[in-house]
Design goal:
By secondary structure, the protein is mainly alpha-helical. It contains four helices and four strands. The strands form two sheets. It has a two-stranded antiparallel ribbon with strand order 1-2. A hairpin with a 5-residue loop joins strand 3 and strand 4.
């Protein structure tokens, strides 16, 4: 059951309560509807957060560290060690003019 299914269900129930002309019942159902929809949204947010965590776990399991940075599986461009370790950000490094790699965040900070 998804968000729109809940909305339709509550719209039907509220319509029935209004036909019964019971103000207290209509109010109670409206409040229940709002709380239920908040729970549905919270559930969706938690599922999204869990999926992101699973994705990060999979990413972390497939990293290998070198002097240049983290490499994911067979990728040829490393990820920034600091960005991943501190913030779980997957930031690819960029080639520096000296044959080394540099984080774009460091480049940005230099320009400030």
């Amino acid at each position: 059951m998804n968000y729109s299914d809940f909305i339709k269900m509550f719209e039907n129930i509220i319509s029935l309560a209004e036909k019964a002309k019971d103000f207290k019942l209509t109010t109670a159902i409206s409040e229940l509807s709002v709380k239920t929809l908040k729970l549905v949204q919270e559930n969706a947010d938690l599922k999204d957060k869990l999926n992101k965590q699973k994705d990060n776990d999979d990413f972390a399991k497939n990293l290998r560290i070198t002097d240049e940075g983290y490499y994911y599986k067979d990728e040829t461009i490393p990820y920034c060690i600091r960005c991943w370790d501190a913030d779980k950000k997957r930031i690819h490094l960029q080639k520096d003019g000296y044959g080394t790699w540099i984080c774009p965040e460091e480049i940005y900070q230099r320009r400030k």
